[in-house]
Amino acid sequence: QLVESGGGLVQAGGSLRLSCAAPSVARPMAWFRQAPGSEREFVAGMSWNNHQIYYEDSVKGRFTISRDIAKNTLFLQMNNLKPEDSAVYYCNAENTLSALREGSHSFAWGQGTQVTVSS
Predict the structure, then answer these.
(1) Spatial contact of 116 and 10, defined as CB atoms under 8 Å apart
(2) What CA–CA distance (Å, rounded) separates 59 from 109?
(3) pLDDT tens digits, residue range 57-67?
(4) H-helix segments, 1-119
Protein backbone atom coordinates (compact mmCIF):
# COMPACT_ATOMS: atom_id res chain seq x y z
CA GLN A 1 0.00 0.00 0.00
CA LEU A 2 1.29 3.42 -0.95
CA VAL A 3 0.63 6.40 1.29
CA GLU A 4 1.53 9.87 0.06
CA SER A 5 1.67 12.92 2.30
CA GLY A 6 3.11 16.40 2.56
CA GLY A 7 0.96 18.30 0.09
CA GLY A 8 -0.66 21.62 0.82
CA LEU A 9 -1.39 25.14 -0.36
CA VAL A 10 1.59 27.37 -1.05
CA GLN A 11 2.27 30.56 -2.91
CA ALA A 12 4.25 30.57 -6.13
CA GLY A 13 7.94 30.38 -5.32
CA GLY A 14 7.34 28.34 -2.20
CA SER A 15 8.46 24.84 -1.31
CA LEU A 16 6.95 21.56 -0.22
CA ARG A 17 8.40 18.17 0.63
CA LEU A 18 6.30 15.15 -0.28
CA SER A 19 6.71 11.74 1.31
CA CYS A 20 5.62 8.31 0.15
CA ALA A 21 5.51 5.37 2.52
CA ALA A 22 5.88 2.23 0.44
CA PRO A 23 6.18 -1.48 0.99
CA SER A 24 9.75 -2.69 1.14
CA VAL A 25 10.53 -2.97 -2.56
CA ALA A 26 13.92 -3.18 -4.18
CA ARG A 27 12.62 -1.51 -7.33
CA PRO A 28 12.79 1.82 -9.06
CA MET A 29 10.24 4.29 -7.74
CA ALA A 30 8.76 7.47 -9.11
CA TRP A 31 6.48 10.39 -8.49
CA PHE A 32 3.55 11.13 -10.79
CA ARG A 33 0.99 13.91 -10.80
CA GLN A 34 -2.46 14.45 -12.19
CA ALA A 35 -4.10 17.82 -12.66
CA PRO A 36 -7.85 18.15 -13.19
CA GLY A 37 -8.81 17.20 -16.73
CA SER A 38 -5.36 15.83 -17.47
CA GLU A 39 -3.79 12.41 -17.59
CA ARG A 40 -1.46 11.28 -14.87
CA GLU A 41 2.12 12.12 -15.83
CA PHE A 42 5.58 11.06 -14.75
CA VAL A 43 7.39 13.72 -12.69
CA ALA A 44 10.57 12.15 -11.33
CA GLY A 45 11.95 8.67 -10.80
CA MET A 46 14.99 6.91 -9.46
CA SER A 47 16.50 3.48 -9.65
CA TRP A 48 16.81 1.16 -6.67
CA ASN A 49 20.54 1.87 -6.29
CA ASN A 50 20.04 5.61 -6.86
CA HIS A 51 22.39 5.53 -9.83
CA GLN A 52 19.73 6.67 -12.28
CA ILE A 53 17.46 9.64 -11.76
CA TYR A 54 15.11 11.19 -14.30
CA TYR A 55 13.04 14.34 -14.13
CA GLU A 56 10.29 15.60 -16.36
CA ASP A 57 11.64 18.64 -18.18
CA SER A 58 9.41 21.20 -16.50
CA VAL A 59 10.63 20.28 -12.99
CA LYS A 60 14.35 19.95 -13.67
CA GLY A 61 16.35 22.18 -11.38
CA ARG A 62 13.38 22.70 -9.05
CA PHE A 63 12.44 19.22 -7.81
CA THR A 64 14.68 16.65 -6.15
CA ILE A 65 13.73 13.00 -5.68
CA SER A 66 15.32 10.92 -2.96
CA ARG A 67 14.63 7.82 -0.93
CA ASP A 68 15.38 6.43 2.51
CA ILE A 69 15.71 2.73 1.83
CA ALA A 70 15.86 1.81 5.52
CA LYS A 71 12.54 3.54 6.13
CA ASN A 72 10.93 2.50 2.84
CA THR A 73 10.16 6.12 2.12
CA LEU A 74 10.36 8.11 -1.10
CA PHE A 75 10.62 11.90 -1.03
CA LEU A 76 10.10 14.74 -3.45
CA GLN A 77 11.53 18.11 -2.50
CA MET A 78 9.76 20.75 -4.57
CA ASN A 79 11.22 24.25 -4.68
CA ASN A 80 10.25 27.37 -6.62
CA LEU A 81 6.77 25.98 -7.11
CA LYS A 82 4.63 27.32 -9.94
CA PRO A 83 0.85 27.34 -10.37
CA GLU A 84 1.21 24.75 -13.13
CA ASP A 85 2.64 22.34 -10.56
CA SER A 86 -0.78 22.17 -8.92
CA ALA A 87 -1.99 18.57 -9.04
CA VAL A 88 -2.52 15.45 -7.00
CA TYR A 89 0.84 13.76 -6.56
CA TYR A 90 1.25 9.98 -6.42
CA CYS A 91 4.11 7.55 -6.04
CA ASN A 92 4.60 4.05 -7.40
CA ALA A 93 7.18 1.44 -8.24
CA GLU A 94 7.94 -0.79 -11.19
CA ASN A 95 10.55 -3.25 -12.36
CA THR A 96 12.44 -0.70 -14.43
CA LEU A 97 12.77 3.06 -14.46
CA SER A 98 11.96 3.07 -18.17
CA ALA A 99 8.65 1.36 -17.49
CA LEU A 100 7.81 3.96 -14.84
CA ARG A 101 8.55 6.75 -17.29
CA GLU A 102 6.05 5.14 -19.65
CA GLY A 103 3.42 5.10 -16.94
CA SER A 104 3.62 1.45 -15.92
CA HIS A 105 3.25 0.73 -12.22
CA SER A 106 3.27 -2.29 -9.90
CA PHE A 107 0.95 -1.15 -7.14
CA ALA A 108 -2.56 0.19 -7.01
CA TRP A 109 -2.54 3.95 -6.77
CA GLY A 110 -2.71 5.47 -3.32
CA GLN A 111 -4.92 8.38 -2.41
CA GLY A 112 -2.28 10.88 -3.48
CA THR A 113 -1.51 14.21 -1.88
CA GLN A 114 -2.90 17.49 -3.17
CA VAL A 115 -0.49 20.27 -4.09
CA THR A 116 -2.00 23.67 -4.82
CA VAL A 117 0.18 26.60 -5.84
CA SER A 118 -1.40 30.02 -5.86
CA SER A 119 -0.13 32.81 -8.09
Answers:
(1) yes
(2) 22
(3) 999 999 999 99
(4) 97-101
